[in-house]
Amino acid sequence: MLCQIGTCRQAISRIHRGLATATPQARRLPQTYIEKVVQKYAVDLPPGKTVHSGDYVMIQPEHVMSHDNTGPIISKYVGYGLLRVVAHRGYGANRFKSIGATKIFNPTQPVFTLDHDVQNKSTKNLAKYAGIEVFARQHGVDFYPAGRGIGHQILVEEGYAFPQCLTVASDSHSNMYGGVGCVGTPIVRTDGAALWATGKTWWQVPRMVKVELTGRLAAGVSGKDVIVALCGTFNHDEVLNAAIEFTGEGVTNLTVDDRLAIANMTTEWGALAGVFPVDRTLLEWYNSVVDKLETRTFNSLASLAIPSPPEHPRINRRRLKRLESRPMTADPDAFYSAHLKLDLSTLVPYVSGPNSVKISTPLPVLEASRVAIQKAYLVSCTNSRASDLASAAAVMKGKYVADGVEFYVAAASSVVQAEAEKSGDWGTLVAAGAKVLPAGCGPCIGLGTGLLEEGETGISATNRNYKGRMGHPKARAYLASPAVVAASAISGFISSPESLNPRSLPPPEGLRSSFSDLFMKSSTSNTAPSDEPLVAGFPAMFAGPLLFTPQDNLNTDGIYPGKYTYQDDITLEQQGKVVMENYDPSFASTVADILPTLAASSILESDTKKGIILAAGYNFGTGSSREQAATALKAAGVPLVIAGSFGDIFKRNAINNGLVCMECPDLIEDLTKMFGKAGVRGQGGVNGELTVAPKWTVTLVMTDGRVEVQTPQGTRTYNVKPIGASVQELWACGGLEGYVLKSIHNSV
Q1: Pairing relation of β-strands 435-436 and 457-460?
Q2: Are residues 543 and 608 in contact, defined by beta-carbon separation less than 8 angstroms?
């Protein structure tokens, strides 16, 4: 059943009106820069409401970007009248679930950029891309085809991500927009469908963290080294699920490209946003961009009679003047939950890995180990801009890639490649033996040519080196700056560029930094039980045998491999069979072997949801925005995950898809002491197990958050915060999509 678009708007507004909860303030409370930007884009706020950390608000972002995952969003969004058009382009009509809308609420808000699987020339993928383009043209949505570049780079180049704006994307690296003073944060596919239909979605404003940068980088040290060092130095969840504001006199010494690289990888650091200030450096950069846009194609006396190019719709003099006339900064007394300091002058080049961004080593230290490589990559939205290509070209000029090494290069966009070709840097890289890939994600997401094979080692200028992400799970991946990647490709092992003078660098062990936690965290495990009414259809209990994955930072690539992410015809049953494949290939079969025993178990209550109860470490589900990480677990027979903490983007996907997530640090601590190697977090099982089956049975009472654990030695009891009514109702409806459908249909 369909409804008119006006009815849809009213229904969605009623659904979410209660999210912005606060009483009017007698005076405006101080705000951070990010809070001010969110205030600007928040809707349906109570009169006098000042937005702060912790608030649930409805946001109407400037833009929402989706890439290859636009197809699945269409399947959640489109009305029945559109099925015939899109289905004949290669989609199965049975995949479409209408949420009741017949047109895009605001066609200028979405942006479609095809960038992930651009090397895939199969009939199936080309039909998928064509279907997305048809949908975009029908609805007047800005569309950028495969080959134009990586979506995040396009959004910066084309002004969709702009200072003092809030722009979201169905991709975890939307944090990158913070490099130009734009609050960028990830959403998930179901949110994308809601935004198309209503222009709005929900967001909880994260806690704020101030990162103060002082000093100036030494020659040969880059923004990539800054963020790699931060990820490895502050690797105990200091910024987990936070929004970061970069401040300090050190910021003025960073180029915009350095800022974009740092902001991009705040995702890997665990943050939901990483934003730099709008300062003179940024404004001068934008003025230079406008100069280029206004430049005539042919500079000659004859060309002076030709009118100037048309004004760019988003990056132009008028918009820059408005920006300069309306400065926005954090209030002096704004509250931050933590304050971190880093002296840039004490930093040397750093390398991340292997296979973890939480491990970083000063290059002078790692270089002594002569770590041999077989592949090197200069690709991705992190470090494949013109300045990055120039940095690599300066290292490789007159040299050639070492025997036994394959060096892959892809520009962040076609605009970047054209600029590099004009400067000669592109030709230098090709002459040195680089293998050229189309502008797009490619190897970074584990798609296309040149992936790491079993036993190989690679070094990359990308943002993630999770096990199995860039190829085989038994390969090793390191991350470094473009210059170090280029130097390593030439030498055949991880090494410094010849131009890097060790005597000009500070001591490798001399990094100066500090961290102050200004916010006392409370443990939900110590919370006394409190009753929570249950929504009709929501189980009174969850119960079943427990499996324990003794690993912190178990990421979405480990939970659901990237090679399946854009195969849109994979069923839920098939997802369940490959869940955890990159982490523990035996996990799915272990779950499948246990599930039949539940039918004969003593758990008989009709109001109990039975299944495998998964216990995990801290920051579970960190990484990308792929919703299959949540849906695959649920499809495998895991209705409940209990962890020390969760990556926020995973938790958002879980809530939107009806997978229950609970935090219980005390339970995880006890499991780690008994079944973890040496009783230490994140080190695997006592005997190296990736998944431990301790023969424990868990019953979680949803009314009061009581966790009763039956062990061979007796019963243990823990407490968690009960789930609120709004999340219960989402679960009862099968997720956000079903909730929206139900609410719209009830309003007709």
Answers
A1: unpaired
A2: yes
Q: What is the sign, positive or negative, of the torsion defined by CA atoms of 599, 602, 603, 606?
A: positive
406-409 and 375-378 beta bridge pairing: parallel
Q: How many CB atoms lie within 10 A of CB 654?
A: 26
Quick check: 475 and 454 in contact, CB under 8 A?
Answer: yes
Number of Cβ within a 10 Å radius of residue 364: 17
CA distance 386 to 95: 40
pLDDT in tens, 341-380: 999 999 999 999 999 999 999 999 999 999 999 999 999 9
**Residue 214: enclosing H or E segment and its boundaries?**
strand 207-214
Q: Mean per-residue pLDDT for 692-698? A: 94
Confidence check: pLDDT of 740 > 60 = yes
Residue 70: other Cβ atoms inside 10 A = 29
With contact defined as beta carbons under 8 Å apart, do 344 and 250 qualify?
yes
- Strand, helix or coil for residue 298: coil
pLDDT of 524 higher than 60: no
- Taking a C-beta distance cutoff of 8 angstroms, is the pair 175, 623 a contact? no
Residue 564's SS3 state is helix
Q: Give the Cα separation of 243 and 210 in Å (integer).
A: 9
Q: How many Å apart are CA 643 and CA 695, to the nearest integer?
A: 18
257 and 481 in contact (C-beta within 8 Å)? no
Q: Which amino acid is at 450?
A: G
Please state at what angle helix 70-77 crosses helix 189-198, rounded to 10 degrees.
60
Match 């039956």 to its residue by tokens: 710
Token couple for 529: 């039980």
- Per-residue pLDDT at 394: 98
Question: For the chain, how many residues are written?
Answer: 748
Residue 512 contacts by C-beta under 8 Å, 6 or more apart in sequence? 342, 343, 346
Do 519 and 677 meet the contact criterion of CB atoms below 8 Å apart?
A: no
What per-residue string of b and e applies to 35-69 under the rule 16 or more CB within 10 Å gives b? bbbbbbbbeebeeebbbbbebebbbbbbbbbbbbb
Sign of torsion, CA 462 467 472 476? positive
Structural tokens at position 663: 């935090």
Q: How far is CA 13 from the centre of its chain?
A: 27
With vertex at residue 213, the alpha carbon angle to CA 207 and CA 216, rounded to the nearest 5 degrees, is 160
Count of H-run helices and E-run strands, the chain: 26, 28
